[in-house]
Structures are given as C-alpha cells and as structure tokens.
Amino acid sequence: MSDEPSVEIFGVEHVKASRTPVYLGMILFLISEAFLFGSLFATYYYLRAETKVWPPAGVHLDTWLASINTFILLVSSGTIWWAGRAIRKGKESSLGIGLGLTIFLGVTFLGITLYEWTHVTFRPWTNAYGSTFYTLTGFHALHVFAGVILMVSMLTRTLRHRFSSSNFLPIEVSSLYWHYVDFIWILVFTTIFIIT
Amino acid sequence: MNKILKIFSLGVIRGLLAGLAGAGAGIGITMLVRHAIGLPAWNPGPVTTIGIFTGVITYLVVLGAFNYWFRWAIGAEPKEAEPPKRSWTRYFNLDTNHKIIGVQYLVTALTFLPFAVALQLVGRLDLSKLVSPLNATTYESIISDHGLLMLFIVVLPAFSGLMNYLIPLLIGARDMAFPRLNALSYWLIPPAGLLTAFSLLVGGFDTGWTLYPPLSASFEYIGMNFILIGIFLSGLSSILGAINFLTTIFKMRAPGMGPFRMPVFVWSTLATTALTLTFTQFIGMSFLMVLFQRVLGMGFFNPQMGGQVLLYQYLFWFYSHPAVYVFVLLGLGIISDTIPVFARKPLFGYKAVAISSIGIAAGGTIVFAHHMFAAGIPAFLKIPFMVTTLLVAVPTGVKVFAWVATMWLGKLRITTAFLFVLSAIVTFLIGGLTGVPLGIVPVDLYLHDTYFVVGHFHATLFGGFLLPLMAAIYFWFPKVSGRMLSEKMGKMQWLLMTVGTTLLILPMLGLGIEGMRRRVFDYSLTLGFRPLHIATAVGGFLIFAGLVILAYNMITSARRGAPAGPNPWNSMILAWQVSSPPPEENFAEIPRVVGNPFGYGVEGSVHAIMSTETKEEIKNE
Amino acid sequence: MKKHLFIVLIFAFALAIGLSYIFLRIDLIPRPSSLERQSIDHLLKILFAIASVIFALVISVFVYSLIFFRRRPGDDKDAPPIKGYGSLEMAWTVIPLIIVIGLGAYGGVVLNDMTRPGPPQSELEIDVTASRFAWQFNYPTYGNITSFELELPINQRVALYMQSKDVVHSFWVQEFGPKQDVVPGMTTQLRFTPTEIGHYTVQCSQLCGYGHTYMTAPVNVVSLADFQTWVQAQQAAPSPTPTATPSTGPTQPSVTINLMAMNISFDLSIIMVPAGASVTINFNNMDNIPHNFAVYTDSSAQTPIFRGQIVTGPAKVTYNFTAPAKPGTYFFRCDVHPTIMTGKFVVQ
Q1: A53: domain CATH number?
Q2: What is the largest CA-CA distance in chain B?
Q3: Any CB–CB contact under 8 A between B156 and chain C?
C-alpha cells in the first residue's frame, strides 16, 4: 500500500482516495445499500401498480415540507464539499465549520422528517401504503442519522487535529457517503411526493 | 477454581453471557415502557424481538467488536497492537487474523452441521413410519429449521471460512483488506446460529424455510421471530464479508497476478461475493417486512390492507435464487482447482471455466421467478423466465465437461480429496440435469412442491457444497494444521457418504415423480412410497456416520497425524509454497506472479517467484 | 489417444441409446388421467432421454478415465499439458445452447395449449374456495350448488377460479397434472380436461400450517349422465340424501353406532354389524374441517354401498342405511381424507 499512486492537490502529495481499499470498501457498501433501497422502491412501485387508488383515499402529503427537506440536504452536500476543499488546502478550522454546518443541516432534516411523520394522517399499520411510506422514509432517515454520527466523529477528530492537507482520506470517504444519502433522498422524494 | 474462572477470560463466553444479560435488560425495559404507555406489559412477539436486538448488540460490544472503531471515532490515539501469541484461546476471542477467522467460521459451521442433519433424520424416521407420527407442527418446525440452519448457518459460514483462510494465501496477500470487519462478520454467526436453533425450543414455526406470508405473518409462533432475526444476522455477516473479499481481490493481489493467473477458487469468490454483496439485501428486507407485519402490524403482504401476497415471493426469490449459486459456485471452484493437482494436468479450458463462474452468477440473477411458476404470476412472465432458466445450464455444462476433459489422459492419483471431488461431479451432474424438467413450465406445474424438487436441490447442494467441502477439508487440513488426515478413515468416510448420498437423492427423485408432496409428514401406505422413504432414511444415517468419522479423523489427526510439510500434494498454488501452518503474516516477501497455477506437464513452467533474493521459484519440476 | 477415444465413444453411444430408449418407453408418472397429463408425460420422457444422453457421455469419459488413466506406481511425471481444444469447447457450449432453446420453445408451446382459456361456454366453470384446511367447490352455472367434493363429467374441460380465505394454498390432483397456487387477494385459474372415469384426490400443495398434510378433497370423474344426475340431486336437496338401499323386511335387525372424527381420524377402526341390518350412524365431526362416512365393497372404493353427506365440523349428523346382506369384510372411509381415515366394515 506504500506504492499507491499519489496525486498533487494544491501543492501537496496525497494518495488518490479512489485508489485506496477503504474508498473501494465504501463504494461496495453503497452498492449494497442501493439494493436495500432498491427492494423498498420495488415494493413501492409494485404495490402502486397493483392498486387502483394510490395513494389511498385520505392520504395528504406535505410536499412543500418535503421540498424544503430536499433543499436542506442539497445545501448540506454543498457544505461538506466545501469542507473537503478546505482541508485539501490545510484549512482545519474551515473543515470544522463545514462539518458543523453539515451536521446541523442533517439534524434539521431529521427533525422535519419526524414532524412529517407525526402530522400525516396515517401510520405504518394503517394500510400497506403507510407501511411502505414509513419504511422507505424511515430507512432513509436511518441512513441520515448514521451519516450525522459519522460527521460528528469526523468533527471530533478534526477538533483533535487528526486531519491535515496530506491526511484527510476519512473526510473523502464520509463525503461520498453523505452525497449518496442525498442522492437517495432525491429518489425517495421523487417517488413518494412527485410521482402520484 | 482458577481454571473455571479462566473460562470467563474467553471473549466468546463473556460475550454470550453479556448478550443474555442485555437481552434480559431489553425485555425488562420494554415491558416497563409498554406498561407506562398503557399497553399490556408482556406481549411475546414484540418484547422478545426487542430483547433479541439488545442482546445481540450487548454481546458484540462486550466481545470488543467495536472497540477499535469507537476509539478511532472519538479521535483517540490508536492502541499499540500486541503481538498475538500462538494459543488455542485465540479461537475463542475476537481475532483479526484471517486464518484464525477462517477456522472459526469452519468449526462453527461443522458444529451446526451434524445438529441440522440430525434434525432431519428424525423427520426421515417419521416418514419411514418407523416411529409413531410426529405432531404436525413439530415436523414442520424440524424440516424448516433443517433448511435454514443448513443454508445460512452451515453453507454460508463454511464457505466464508474457506474463502477467509484461502483467499489471501491464494493471491499472495498478508491478510484481508479489512481485518476488523472480518472479525465482526464472523462473530455475527454464533448468535445467528443459536437463534435459529433456539427457535425450536420456543415453539418452532410451520412455514418451511421459505417463510411465505400470510402464514408466516399471522400466527403466534415466537420461533418465527427468532428465525427472522437469526437469518438476518447471517445475511448481514455475508454482506460485510463480501465487501472484504471484493476489496481484497481487487486491491491486494500479488504483483503480476492478472485475472487469468488466479486459481478458479478466486474467480468463484468474485462471482459469489458480487452476488452476496447485493442480492442479500432483498431477503434481509423481505424478512424485516414479515417481522414488521408480525410485530408492528404493518401491511405489506396483507390484501385486506392493500398489500400483495406475491410481493414477498418476488422479493424473497430475487435473492434466494442467486443464493443457490452462491451455495454452489465455490464448491465448483474447489473441484476446478483440485482436479489438476491430482491429474497432474492443466485445467481444460481454464479461461472458459473462469468466465463461466461469472456467467452463472450473472445468469442466476434473471431466473428467479422459476420458483413461482405455479404461484399466480402473470402469464407473460412464465416463458421468459423459463428461457433464462434453461440458459444457465450452458455455463454450468461448460464446467462439468471441462472437469472430465481434465481427467482424460491424466495421471490420476486416488486420494480421499480426489474421491470426494469425483462423487461431487457425478452428484452435481444429476442435480443439474434434474433442474431442466423443473425449468420447463408445464412439467414444473406437476413437479413443483414434490420430492422431485427436494431431490434436485439435495443433489446440487451435495454436489456443489457438501462433497466439495469434504474434498477441501482433506486437501487443506495439512496446510491449516501441519498434519495429514488419515487416508484410511477418509476413504471409509467417502464410501459411507457417497453411498448415503445416492440412497438419499435417487429415491427422492422417484418419490417426486410418483406424486409425493413435500413438507408433509404422512401418506397412505397404499401409494407404495414407504420403501423409498426408508432408503432415504438409510442414506441420511450413512451420511451422518460419515460425519462422525470425519470428526474423529480431524480430532485425532490434529495431534497424531503425519507431519505434512509445506507441499504434500506438490501443487503449484501460492498457498502451498509457505510452511504448514503458514506464518502469521503468510509470506515473508510478497511473491511476484509470472504464470498461471496450472502449468503441469510443462517442464520449467513458473507460477511465481517467491523471493527476489533467492530467486526461489514455484516451478513445475 | 485415438484408440481411447474410439472405445469410449462406442461405449458412450451404447449407453446413451440404451438409457434414452428406456426413458422413452416406460411410463414414468403413474395414473395419467387427463389431456394435460399426456403432454406433461410426453415432455418428461423427452427430457429424461436427453438428460440420459448427456449423462452417458459424461459418465463414460469419467469412468474410462478412472480405469485407464490412473497413475502407474513409480510414475511421478506429469500428464500431457493439454490446456484446451477450441472446437470441442465451442461444441459443448453451442450444442447445449441449441438444445435448451429448443426445449424452451417446445415447453412454451405446450404451456400455451395447456393454459389458454377456451372459447366461452366451452368450459365448465367451477369456483374453488380454499381455507385452513378444507376445499369447497361451487358450480355457478348450475345454480350455485356448493359441495365438498369435486364432481366432474368426463372429457369436459374444466376451468377453476380459485380464492383463498386465509393463507396460500395450492390445488393439485396428481392424476390430472398441473397445480396452481390459491392466493389471498387474487383469483387464480387452473384448466384441465379429465379423460378417465374414477376417484381422485385434491391435495393441497403449498404448506399452509399444521393441517396441510391432510388438506384433501375427493374428486369424482363420472359420465355426463351421472354428472347431470348428481347436479339435479344437489339442486333438489341442499343436504344431499345418502344412497339408499331398500330395507329388507320386518325381521330386519337394527343397530346404532356412535362414530367420532377428531384430528383427522375416526375413533373406530372396525365397525361390526349384522347382515342386512338397518344401520344408524351417529356421526360427530369434532374437527372444523369437512368429513363424512362412506362404505364401499373394498378399499379400491370403486363400488359404494353408502356415501354420507360431507359435513364441516363441529357438527353432528345421523346417517341411515342398510348393511349388505352378504357377510364379509367391507371397507369404510372418509371421502375427504380417503387415504388417512379408513377402517374395516365387518358384516356378520
């Protein structure tokens, strides 16, 4: 692993993340999670195809709120991207700020999700639509939650000076995860709130 | 007294005890919370489910599976890793060396194997009408647990064990890419196995291993919840393992080991783990959905709530069909790698065999609805799935033909390992050929849910898993332990198991054609099924006897077997170029690969250069 | 090498021809009793013949190698380094490909013939309801008569429309060929044409719980005339009357027997009555699935002496009939579970 090809970024030698085993491991993990969400999307679309009225009568979704959530996640992808650029230039404090913002946005997303869950008129045990809605948004929220924990860990390590312009591979790996979770949300949002 | 206390220093004991405590705590807290919010405190389903979750997490934490990652996450200084001491206690603790983990997986699988077989032997006695008929639920629980234990607690972990032990040694690496993840993957298996087996003690379940709702979602069998979580853990272990194997193979092959210089076992691992990485999520999710329906009242599969019964079957089989290729691809890889060593001849058509592994895996992803021809799927799906199912026969055939072509004109050495390979070939051939009638829809509409299916999959599983596993054990035991297994006992075991396999499978195929349904525990004597059932029972007992001999052989040879030396089989594969057992880091120097490992018959063909100083080569002399 | 090849190919061809001949001649699946069985049986023969050819080829090379290509003692050299042979590998990839595509096409044609709905009015429509653990049959075109037995006229294509009340079941009569799952939330269909008069059994073929093994129902294929008679009898009396035999005379002995059905068994395995007696059976069905009591001349159940009404428990019903005049050992059973619930009916 000492002869990993390296690249120069902003004047500093750095091992190209995409060539490292850890990065490949994250990619493989995300491929696996694609199948997890795939099974949930398959469930949603199959039930929708086999049901005359979908969503069932009486279901009102707050598409506005969900759109705000979409915007929040997109901004958070921006903040983590900005944080990644900062540490490439060695700006540790900017990394910390970027991470903090990302965490704040992630927690806000979760809060809004909880609000949506408590304010829709149906529950997971009301009907199959409810089961699918809560499972799909629930598993996504779980992934956001895990992402927040991951970012909190990154922030902790930043505060203890574990990252520098030549050592920030975990930030790259975590960013990949975060962007992925954002991307999955776009699919969830489109499926549940746009395609009716 | 001191010796007794020493037991508690073993990670597994601490972990299991902590797990029980955690489960108890989880149950207690759940009951308190339920009482506080006005529900009845005790409801077996939800309360035990939460207890199982808290138990498993506590167990993993106390085992130390998360220690390093936790310290890393909070930014603490990494602890100095102590050099491991060679001691048997390593096997009972969290250890990151792939060779230790490989043995842990194998021993766990081989421990559950006789239990799972014994369960089914009871079922066979019932069907032979040699004992009074079992209670219906008991019978259904036995056969269902037999299936789940065998597939998820024996086959998957046994193959994980082989892959773990062998892959770094075959590709010239020092360990797996993610050793700590590797350890976690293993330690998920003991609770998975215990939960699955334990379900029998809490009332069992009556759905077959396929757990179709509404039956699986409706009735109050706590055993069902145990199974759903137990198998979920095994699936999780599979997925984490797949991440490891794929990264290791892509990133850590010795320099010069291009794709067509890898042993076929490595190709098989690639194909298998590509499937387990991805498709396992579907069975995980389908089981979770059943669990949610049972415990939380969700309605995925409940038509009265707008759900669809067939949804489960589509999700379940989307994994479970590729899974059967997971169950056999590695065994087929073992056969492909072993014949050349004992025929002293290159593998015939190596490139085609390597690619056929990928072909079988890829083809296996588009055939799944052939389990549902009678299920009520739309007519337009049946013919395409029939065609794809039949097409998978082609790469499978390529392998079988290549094997016998390798034997042709060889110089065959009849060792126990080779004998098992031979039995595997014939058994798998029967398995493959009986798959064709099942793939043709009108014939399947007769044969579905009969013993013909049971015979078919036992033939493919014996031919693709159990017999190759026996071959692998006889082949690799010298490398793992440094000693040879007794060939005499091995040949006795081989005879018992081959005769047993034949007596088990052929009558099942006959019973199916005659119209005996599967998953029933009684039938009329006038139908003439009894002699065939007695034959399968005898076969089962012979197989079990073979396993007993294997256990005895392994235990005695580990102490008193003949010393093996580094390369008793005179194989060209990298693993046989280091000592038996291998050093902690496998290779003193990473080898440089310059040819493929099948260069038998060519004077001076080289697979790899082991050391740049001594220029020691793996040559064919 | 040429000598080896010649010998092994001769042996392989002989074995292939022998095995495939056997499979093409013998009738593998017992009791064919429908048009669909003819197609299925024929296809299966072809499949086994092809399989035996492939098996013969592989096994011949396999066995030959084991006999003639063993390492001779003292020979530590390697074997010839044959890495492959392009045209052979091509052949054994392409030929199986052609075979499986051909089989797929043939199978598709057979499937189409078997399942394609016929023109309206050409099929006898029967609605089937499956539940844990019984089958119920409804004849919508015959005034909605309901029965626990499936009565069918010979040579008439049947179209079953099936629904389940609870879990997944599966309708299968082994002698008729294909099966079809019965799925809650859907109506599934199955078509077949019985071609032999006789008694058959529906067996549930999807594990549905503890009663799955015994979830059966009788099927009677009769002539068209007998079918019409049955239909009229069903329509006239909602509780169909048992087949009555005329009573013999004032000195006729009479006997009353209490018979219970529980957990899919009778509590009596032998019933004894005087010859020609007027028999009263107080039948108590304690299961919540259908049972009945029926007497036949022998265990083949071809000639009925008495067939009682099928009742779903818990229920009590009284059966009356006259025992045969000729002493001997006859046979009684439950028609719904004909292979499990049986006994001896002894006339003295």
Answers
A1: 1.20.120.80
A2: 82
A3: no
